[in-house]
Design brief:
About 65% of the residues lie in helices and about 10% in strands. The chain has helices spanning about 1-10, 10-30, 50-60, 75-85, 115, 135-145, 155-190, 195-215, 220-250, 255-285, 295-320, 325-330, 345-370, 375-380, 385-395, 410-425, 435-440, 450, 475-490, 500-535, 540-560, 565-595, 600-635, 635-665, 670-675, 685-689, and strands spanning about 35, 65-70, 90-95, 120, 125-130, 150-155, 220, 375, 400-410, 430, 460-465, 495-500, 565.
Length: about 700
Amino acid sequence: MERFARIVVRHRKAVIVLFIVALIVSIPLISLVKTNYNMVDYLPTDAPSTRALAVMSEEFSQNTPNTRVMVPGLSIPEALAMKQSIDALDGVTAVLWLDDTIDLKLPLSEADPSTIEAFYRGDTALYSVTIAPGREQEATAALRALVGTDGAVAGDAPSIAAAQFATASETMKAFAIGVVAVIIILILFSASWLEPLLFLVAIGVSILINMGTNVIFGEISFITKSVSPILQLACSLDYAVFLLHSFARNRLIYPQVEVAMVHAIKESFSTVAASATTTLFGFLALVFMNFQIGADLGINLTKGIILSFITVMVLLPALTLSCYKLMDRLTHRPLMPTFKGVYRVTAKAGIIVALAVLVAVVPSFFGQRHAEFLYGNENAVANTQAGEDARRIAEQFGQSTLMVMLVPSDDRGREAELCSAIKEVPHVTSIISYSETVGATIPPGFLDSSITDQFFSAHYSRIIIYLDTPVEGDLAFSTVVLLREVADAFYGDEALTLGQSTNLYDMKLLVQEDNVRVTLVAALAIFCVLLLTFRSLIIPLLLLLTIESAIWINLAIPYFTGTPINFIGYLILSTVQLGATVDYAILLTTNYCASRRTMEKRQAIHVAVGGSFRSILVSATTLAIAGFVLFAVSTNAVISDIGLLLFRGTILSFVLVTCFLPALLTVFDRVIAKTMWRPGFVFSEKRKS
C-alpha cells in the first residue's frame, strides 16, 4: 500500500493528465447512451408477457394499442374523419374505434349499448391508438395539438413521453440543486474554502466517467439515468472526506506534504475500502432481481462506486498536492462544533429510541411486507398532463384497459367459442376479433388483406379485449387471471396474453420473489464483509439489526398510513439504504472497539460517539438531501418515491446508529468480547472478579 501511495504522490501530474484524458473521452460518450423508458423491456424472457410480446412482434406488423384519445363534440361522420386524421399522424401506426367493432351502416339502436359506450358517449369519441416505440414524445405532442385543449391523450405511450420529458428536464436540475446543498454542508464541516471544490471535482470526475462508460451497455433505464448521478455523489462523498481529514491529521505529524499524503492514503485506504465494499455489495444485490431493472441500476451504481473509490484514492491526492498551498491560504475557522460531548445528548435520547424500536420493529417487519405497491407508468406520471388526461377520460368513459390474446389460427370455430366465453367474463365490455367483427363463417380469402392482417398472422389469431377495470390493482389482476384461465381451457399453453394489465401482473409476481431474494443476498453479503472487518460473530448481527430496523420502519410507514408506493422504489431502497448507511454503524463500532482496548465501555462509547458523530452527520446529511431533492424536484412518482424513501430512511438510520446502536454495543459488550478474535478489551479488576 505504501508503494502504491508513493507512486500516486510521485506521479501526480501524470495522474491528473490521465483523468483529464478519461474525461475528454467520456463526456462525448454520454450523449450516445440511449435511455429506455419502457419497464416491460426489463421483464425476464421467460415471463408470459415477454413471450407474448415477442410472438406479437414476429407475427403482426401492428403493436398493441397503447394510447387513448378522447375528443368531444363529434358526430359519427366527424368522429370517422377524426379517426383518419389521427391515423395520418407521424408515429401513429393504428387507430381502433367503434367502426371496427360494429357496422355503422346499421342503426346504433340495434347494437349492444355497452359496446357503443366503450367508444362513443353522447357526442364524445374515444379512440384506441397505437404509437410506435421510440416515437412517443412527437406522436403525443401531435395528438394533443390535433385534439386541442378540450381533448385528452392518455395511456402507456403518453406516460412514457411524460417520463422522457421529466427525465430530460429534471435530472440535471436535481443534480444541480443537490450539488449546491452539498457545497453548503461541506463548507460548514470543512477547514478550508477550497476543500468542497476538491471533494466535488474528484467525485464529479467519477460520475462523468461512469455516465460515459455506460455506452458499453448501449442503453440504461430512465430510473438509472435519474437517480444514479446523485446517489453516487451522496454515497461516495464521505470517501473524499475521510482522505482529506486523514491528510490534515498527518500534516500535523509530518512536515513534508508528500510524506503526509502517503500516510493519509495508507491510513484511509482500509476505511474507505470497507465503506465502499459494503455499499458496493448493497448495490450488487440488485443484480439478483429477476426484474432486470435491478441489474440495470445495480451494475451502474456498482461501477460508479468503484470509479469513485479510484478517483478518491488516486486523483484526489494528486489534486490536493497540486493546490495545497492555496488550500492553506483559504482556511477558515470551524463553523460547526466538534460534537465531542454529543453522547450526553444521544444517551438520553437513546433510551426513548431503544424503547420505540423495541415496540415498532416487529409490527414494522410484518407491515413492510404487506405494503401496497404501484407498478404502472400511468401512476408514475399522475401529476403530469398525461395523468390529468387519464382522469378526464375515466370521468367520461369510466375505467378502461385493453388486453390482447393470441391463439393458434387453425380452428376458427374454436376461436369463436373462445370469444363467446370471453364475453361472459365479468368486466369485459367488448371484443375485436375476426369471428366477432367479420364472422367465423366468412373465409379470410374473400377479404382484403388490410382487414385480415388485423386479425391473422401465419400462425396466430389476435383477439383484442376491452375491460372496464383499472390498469392495475386487485380487480385488474384477478380479471387477468380469469381470462388466462379461460384461454387455457381452450388452448392450454398455446394461448398468449399481453397488455398493460398482464405486464403489470407479471411484474407483481416477480416482485414477490425478488423482494425476499434481494434482501437476503444483500444482508448475507454485508454480513460477510462485517464478519471479516470485525472478526466477530455478534457485531455483524448488531449492525444489521440496527440498519434493518431502520429499513423496516421506513418501508412500513406507507403500509400503516395506507399510502401505496412504487414497487421499484421499495425494492431499490431496501438494498440502497442498507449498503449506504451501514457505513455509519461501521465507523462508530470501529471507534468503539478501538477505544475499548484502552478504556471501560462507558468511556469508550462516549469517545466513539463523539469521534464519529461529525463524520456520520456529514454523510447522512448529504444522502438525506439527495433523497429530498429527488422527492421535491421529480414529477415522476417512481423517482419521487425513491427520493422520499431515501430521505426518510437515511434520517432513521442516522438516529438508530447514533442513539440505538450505542446501547446495543454497551449491553452486549461482554458477548462481543467473548465472540471477537483478539478483542483486547480492558475490564476493571472488580469486574473481572
